[in-house]
Write a structure and sequence with these properties.
Layout: H1 2-17, H2 28-37, H3 46-57, H4 59-82, H5 86-107, H6 109-116, H7 122-132, H8 137-160, H9 162-165, H10 168-194
Helix pairs in contact: 2-4, 3-4, 3-8, 4-7, 4-8, 6-7, 6-8, 6-10, 8-10
Length: 195
């Protein structure tokens, strides 16, 4: 983290202050993806990072980079916990907790993953818990994408324009409401494809 801060910290400090005197380097986006991925382990202010992506790259490219970073964070938490064998998972949450958790994530897990992405701390915890409870990968990754895309593009848009910065409540509403629409559409399409 310290090496990354010394390499790129000044540039992101300039972005957050609004004093952009330099353009992002060719590989700076990769640092930001790594930073967002670290959100699984460290308290990274993801919304501020996503807004700075909008300032540096604009709403479209910034949103795409943000989506990649937040999706990678969710994938990391899910896969690390899914690698635990079932015996280890039962040790952590108990047999009853495992049964309840698996039932919950089978029926309501998609909604919870998709809708939690704009909240604080919950996304990482739920990603880990979904992996621990062996949530179906197809359902998990679809829900993760439905949640990360709207949030990433909204905050990149928020960082890219002054008009958006005046409408912070709108950004919050979009981040929370669009995943509902996306997950509803995906669930409907998935049920139709299975039948």
């Amino acid at each position: 983290m310290l090496v990354a801060f010394f390499a790129w910290g000044g540039y992101f400090e300039e972005l957050l202050r609004g004093n952009i005197t330099s353009q992002p380097g060719r590989w700076d986006w990769l640092f930001v993806v790594g930073l967002l991925t670290l959100d699984v382990f460290l308290p990274i202010p993801a919304t501020a990072v996503l807004a700075s992506l909008g300032m540096a790259y604009g709403p479209w490219l910034g949103g795409a980079i943000g989506t990649l970073g937040t999706f990678t964070a969710g994938t990391t938490g899910y896969l690390l916990c899914r690698l635990l064998n079932e015996r280890a998972a039962k040790f952590l949450v108990g047999e009853k907790g495992m049964a309840l958790g698996q039932q919950f994530f089978q029926h309501k897990g998609g909604w919870v993953i998709a809708l939690s992405r704009w909240t604080i701390l919950l996304p990482e915890l739920l990603s880990c818990y979904a992996g621990l409870m062996r949530m179906a990968p197809r359902q998990y990754f679809a829900a993760l994408l439905c949640g990360t895309m709207p949030m990433s593009f909204t905050y990149a848009w928020l960082g890219s324009t002054n008009t958006a910065q005046e409408n912070k409540l709108l950004a919050l509403v979009i981040s929370a409401a669009v995943p509902v629409l996306l997950w509803s559409c995906w669930s409907w399409w998935n049920k139709k494809a299975i039948n």
